[in-house]
Amino acid sequence: MKKRQKLLLIMIVIIISVFAVYQLSHTNKLSYIALGDSLAEGQNPYGEISYGYADYIADYLRQNKKLKNYTKKYSQNDYKTIDIINQLEVDTEIRKDLRESDIVTVSIGANDFLNRIKKTDLDVREIKNYQEIVNNIIPRVDICLKEVRKYAKEKLIIVGYYNPIPFLFNTSEKELDELFSYIDDQYQQLAMKYHATYISNYQLFKENKDFLPNPKDIHPNIEGYQAIATKVLEVIIKEQR
């Protein structure tokens, strides 16, 4: 009987030890890549590359011992959809990093849009024209996300846009709401298509106009980036539970 109890005790110790080793080797640490334009890179309202939403996300994961790797080197302030598509075609390193990633955030499409409109004297009568521009851009965003999804097989989060030029739009809130609701809807459909999560930020910035302190620049301040990061982290934390 004593031998049997001793054997059972040894087996329990072995099982506990194996489980402990397993737990230590499976800490669920995450590799995170921020992909896209100046919002992903973290440009501030005064033309400097600083702390952006991706950095705050990485900080949270690091502080909670959940971060394995993080990079935003594949983000550039002037990036359009075609730039990411081209980079994925020629750069083996980005393809490798995306394959090994656990989380990828993407903010892309704003430069495609802004390069197609004049940024002065914007008027309500042009809202329909802006919607047509969006219709022309969405297929490019589609191709871009398709290419990203070829390599990024885990969590993909699409970071949506706010009204980037609130100081210049000579139009009513109703028309703007309709335009950005349409943009959100188009991005949401793409998110569903590629099994991604879409984060809308239009309403967030509409309710916090102080996030854009410089009338001559479209980029958020620290508080704006932190607010975007919080919305993204809510998704990440929920899925990590």
Written description of the protein model:
There is one protein chain. The chain is of the alpha/beta class and 241 residues long. Helices cover 55% and strands 12% of the residues. The chain is built from ten helices and seven strands. It has helices at residues 2-25, 38-41, 53-63, 81-90, 92-99, 110-114, 127-151, 173-193, 202-206, 222-240; strands spanning 30-36, 67-71, 103-107, 122-123, 155-159, 169-170, 197-199. The protein has a five-stranded parallel beta sheet. The longest helix has 25 residues, at 127-151.
**Oligomer, anyone?**
single chain
Which overall shape is indicated by the principal axes computed on the Cα atoms?
globular
String of helices and strands: HEHHEHHEHEHEEHEHH
Please, how many helices? 10
Q: What is the CA-based Rg, rounded? A: 22 Å
Major sheet size, sense and barrel closure: 5 strands, parallel
- Mean of residue pLDDT? 86
| Coarse structural class | alpha/beta
The strand order across the widest sheet is 2-1-3-5-7
Question: What is the straight-line distance between the termini?
Answer: 43 Å
Helix content: 40-55%
Number of strands: 7
Query: How much beta, percentage-wise?
Result: 5-15%
In the predicted model, the low-confidence regions spanning at least 5 consecutive residues are 10-26
